[in-house]
Amino acid sequence: MSVAKIIEVSSESETSFEDAIQKGIDKTAQSVEGVKGAWIKEQKVTVDENRITHYRVDMKVSFVIN
Known about the structure:
Layout: E1 3-13, H1 17-31, E2 35-48, E3 51-65
Antiparallel strand pairs: 1-3, 2-3
């Protein structure tokens, strides 16, 4: 039987939402083992002088615990 835990993670990128998601998952995987998935709750951008400067995501990351 597997048991999973879910944590909330916020991440940011200057490139894209996909990059922000990958950075968040990579950083989470440095602290916990067994990352299995992520649910993207929210996507936001920061705008300066009519240009997107940062892509931000809030996500729930699930991982298996022993």
